[in-house]
Design goal:
This protein is α/β, with parallel strands linked by helices. The chain has a domain at 250-328: Recoverin, domain 1. Helices cover 41% and strands 14% of the residues. It has 17 helices and 16 strands. The strands form seven sheets. The protein has a three-stranded antiparallel sheet, with no helix packed on it. It has a three-stranded antiparallel sheet with strand order 14-15-16, sandwiched between helices. A two-stranded antiparallel sheet has the order 1-2. Helix 4 (70-78) runs parallel beside helix 13 (334-353) and helix 9 (255-262) crosses helix 10 (272-285). The two termini are 38 Å apart. It is a peripheral membrane protein. This is EF-hand domain-containing protein. Residues 250-285, 291-326 form the EF-hand domain. It is found in: Mitochondrion inner membrane.
């Protein structure tokens, strides 16, 4: 019965009937070409004239989202339908969390590969982690880090800390570690599989964008301001979020603008009243500086080296530079990307709704729009989670939670709830059930 219904649906759905009468924009079939490589420039799509709804949509501002990660999903889910003509360019999506890789590899060997190659797994397979820091999960609480290390020891996963990889050969990994005399010593581990997981680097596209823009000096990401606008790009036209970007932390680069705005009597110095005004302006430009600017009077007195009850340019430069060095950049995590995406989606929706009002007040995309409709982005840390092989750990700031199956299912609940749609939740649940009943898919190994 079900099979017959499927065939009946297909018979009435997929047909060539009336295909000649479907309107198609000429530019969609024969796009203009341009750029250094004379590539097609997409200005119209085949579906733009498909019906009245699509025709109206193609007249809306065109929003191009490059990438399909948590930031992109956050933007798409927050945008009001119909406000923009949206195009998403992404070869694949990245809306999954990566478990702690050594634990996942251990589970793979013990739960699945063991069934096929029991002798080899027991005698010939070992897993070793080389960590440059003193502990693993070093951004979590000490209790969580110790719990993870004890679990590695229990599972037989080798852990080498305070070591740096010097070379990787086809048959071994060479690393250095300080010996008892404090001098670096070279060690070698035989291997036939190496998983390199040492942080993030610029995506080639991101690196290309960064190289073409002025004022982009960060080596690992595109630098953006507190409104997530790309520095050096036309104001209000290009934004960057997620691990492709990093919010600027340098305050001293704004020194001259801040002095010009806060120096009321134009004497070239900043008295305490002007310093209080400057602090408020700094907090608006770089919200992550707030916790370092709470002691306003104490900072003023500390850097007033000549005790003249004012700060000259040199004193201000030293003060702002040292505060900038204390600001920690946001981590390149899914939580940060998702919050940035939702923030940007809400802001763009406000811009779309208030476009006529903004234009009447002389505000265009070039300046002032972001400040008029939204405050700067502020990150709210909701805690960190990590899966460590049939167990999980939660770091919620003041509270930590770690354990076996109970923690693992709690982690899976959060993982499941954060999926981007009902479809991905259903697929994830099916994957878990298939894994539990039949094990992992080893066909690609």
């Amino acid at each position: 019965m079900l099979t017959g219904a499927i065939f009946l649906h297909d018979a009435f759905t997929y047909t060539d009937k009336h295909i000649d009468g479907v309107p198609v924009a000429p530019l969609a079939l024969h796009p203009e070409r341009g750029g250094p490589k004379n590539l097609p420039v997409v200005k119209s799509y085949l579906s733009d004239l498909e019906d009245s709804e699509q025709s109206e949509l193609c007249e809306k501002p065109h929003l191009v989202i490059v990438g399909g990660g948590w930031g992109a999903i956050g933007v798409i889910n927050t945008l009001k339908t119909g406000d923009y003509h949206v195009t998403v360019v992404s070869p694949e999506t990245y809306t999954t969390f990566t478990p702690l890789l050594p634990s996942e590899m251990y589970d793979l060997c013990q739960e699945d590969i063991m069934n096929y190659y029991p002798k080899m797994c027991r005698q010939d397979v070992s897993i070793t982690v080389i960590q440059s820091r003193e502990h693993i999960l070093n951004t979590y609480s000490e209790a969580i880090s110790q719990y993870a290390e004890k679990k590695f020891m229990h599972d037989g996963v080798g852990l080498i800390t305070n070591a740096r990889v010097a070379a990787v050969t086809p048959t071994s990994v060479i690393y250095t570690k300080k010996g008892a005399d404090g001098k670096p010593e070279s060690h070698e581990i035989p291997t036939n599989f190496v998983l390199w997981s040492t942080g993030i680097a610029m995506n080639p596209f991101v690196a290309r964008v960064s190289s073409l823009l002025p004022n982009q000096v960060h080596r690992k990401a595109i630098e953006v301001d507190a409104h997530l606008r790309v520095k050096g790009a036309p104001m209000g036209e290009v934004y960057a979020i997620g691990d492709a970007s990093t919010i600027e932390t340098s305050i001293v680069s704004h020194l001259l603008d801040l002095v010009d705005e806060s120096d009321k009597n134009k004497d070239g110095k900043i008295d305490f009243e002007e310093w209080e005004d400057m602090v408020q302006k700094i907090k608006k430009r770089i919200p992550m500086s707030e916790e370092h600017l709470s002691r306003v009077r104490e900072l003023f007195d500390l850097y007033d080296s000549d005790a003249d009850n004012s700060l000259n340019l040199n004193e201000l430069a030293v003060l702002l530079q040292e505060i900038g060095h204390k600001i920690t950049a946001l981590p390149a995590t899914a939580q940060v990307a998702a919050q940035q995406g939702k923030y940007l989606g809400r802001k763009l929706s406000k811009v779309a709704r208030q476009r006529s009002v903004l234009a009447a007040n002389g505000l265009t995309t070039e300046a002032g729009v972001d400040e008029a409709v939204s405050s700067p982005f502020r990150y709210l840390h909701l805690g960190s989670l990590a899966y460590i092989g049939n167990a999980a750990v939660f770091d919620l700031g003041k509270y930590s939670f770690m354990g076996g199956l109970a923690a693992m299912y709690a982690w899976r609940s959060v993982y499941w709830s954060e999926q981007v749609s009902s479809r991905t939740r259903a697929l994830l649940m099916i994957d878990w059930i298939v894994r539990g009943v039949w094990g992992r898919d080893l066909s690609r190994l």
